[in-house]
Amino acid sequence: MHRSRWDPLPEYLLGLLFEKLRVAAESFYGQNIGGAVVSIPSFYVTDFQRHVLHSLVASNLEVRQIIPAGTAATLAHGYPSQGNKFIDYYLLICTKQRCGIQFYDNGYDEMLAIADDLRGEGIIEELLKEAGILARDILHVIIIDEPTPVLQQQVEASFPGKILPTDPYAVMRGAALKAKWFREPEVTCAMSIIPFGLGVQLSDGIFGPVIMRNTIFPKRASRRFSFVERQIRFFTGSGAPWELEYTNSSASQLLGTMDLPVVEGTAAPFDVIISVAIDEDGSMNFTVAEGGISKRRWSHLSRTIR
């Protein structure tokens, strides 16, 4: 039986964290944040779920919806239906505008190949060639928002039995927070809280990873990031866990190139990560996950929601 090892923060303190996130998001995003969509994996006990919800209310956030983790999310993570065995895998992700092959490994993800022209033949073959893998290496295919008929036909012919059912859970993997999978690439905001630390990243598109990698595995963070120059990152150190430190607070610079050095050092293990994404309509999306690190691996990945 999977059990949380986390000794929860007091509700008032967790509420303070949510409040600081809300204020920071409103200031940075330029919109009022009044509601939250909450997703808490089912392996957490009812008391813990209630603890988080009370903290949200204490931070003046209306809980608009509660979404439990679903089996489709488990499939998309690459987990078997029983247990939490971790495996590395490749995903083929297709939308109406683009198609890409994503590699996922130990909490890291990278788009190995991206195709923006989806009208011609041989799209899948070119993607596989650029990524340096074979069709059999693809674990799952995720189709979002009805891609072109040509691409749909190629995908069905190349990956029979690997296409996941259309499901919001199926397009979210690991701790990656993407608020705009179903639309044109836009600037999105994602936040993560860990005990004794707080982090925020912004990305300029659905294929730009949004995750607090540097907080978790700082020595490995630069190994697979092809999009790091298109992100803005600000987070606290252990000395000031409840205060935000901005390395760059100008949203207008998001679309430019920024030199963001990887933070070196050994990250301390933690038990629970609480992540927050900001939607365009001003909603905050929360996810809670256990992340006790053992031998530089996650014991459990988070379930994220739209």
TrEMBL record:
Keyword terms, alphabetized: ATP-binding, Nucleotide-binding
Pfam families: HSP70
UniProt key word ATP-binding: yes
Superkingdom in the source lineage: Eukaryota
InterPro entries according to UniProt: ATPase_NBD, HSP70_peptide-bd_sf, Hsp_70_fam
A GO term for molecular function: ATP binding
The name this protein goes by in its record: Uncharacterized protein
